[in-house]
């Protein structure tokens, strides 16, 4: 997405990803695919995102990692969704979860 001038943002709609609009404000969104990094990396990635002005961390819940075998769930290590959400919450941004089974390739 190209950079926008402030006056252009007033004409934007929710069709212009990665900005989400509410009635009163704009939110800048960033994807962090948490299973593609280690839990040790999460605080730094999230803090850098916040320092860069991002308001929302969006992530997929990759179901093939959650349930590698039908009925056997994995929420440990890099698949620890609850820990990731808590790390984001502690840093301050909002979390937007996209729950599988489909994950796009952004």
Q: How would you describe this protein?
A:
This protein has 106 residues and is of the alpha/beta class. The protein has a domain at 27-96. 27% of the residues lie in helices and 20% in strands. It has four helices and four strands; from the N terminus they run αββαβααβ. It has helices at residues 6-9, 42-51, 63-66, 81-91, and strands at 19-21, 26-31, 56-61, 94-99. A four-stranded mixed beta sheet has the order 1-2-3-4. Strand 2, helix 2 (42-51) and strand 3 (56-61) form a beta-alpha-beta unit. Helix 2 runs parallel beside helix 4. The longest helix is centred in the last third of the chain and has 11 residues, at 81-91. The protein is globular. The two termini are 12 Å apart.
Essential attributes:
hydrolase; 20% strand; beta-galactosidase; 4 helices; 27% helix; disordered N terminus; 106 residues
Describe, in short, the structure shown.
This protein has 106 residues and is an alpha/beta fold. It has helices at 6-9, 42-51, 63-66, 81-91; strands spanning 19-21, 26-31, 56-61, 94-99.
List the helices and strands and how they pair.
Blueprint: H1 6-9, E1 19-21, E2 26-31, H2 42-51, E3 56-61, H3 63-66, H4 81-91, E4 94-99
Parallel strand pairs: 2-3, 3-4
Antiparallel strand pairs: 1-2
**Biggest sheet overview:** 4 strands, mixed
Q: Fraction of residues in helices?
A: 25-40%
Strand content: 15-25%
End-to-end span in angstroms?
A: 12 Å
Order of helices and strands: HEEHEHHE
**How many E-type strands?**
4
Overall average pLDDT? 78
Instruction: Kindly provide the radius of gyration, computed on alpha-carbon positions and rounded to a whole number of angstroms.
Output: 15 Å
**Strand adjacency order, main sheet:** 1-2-3-4
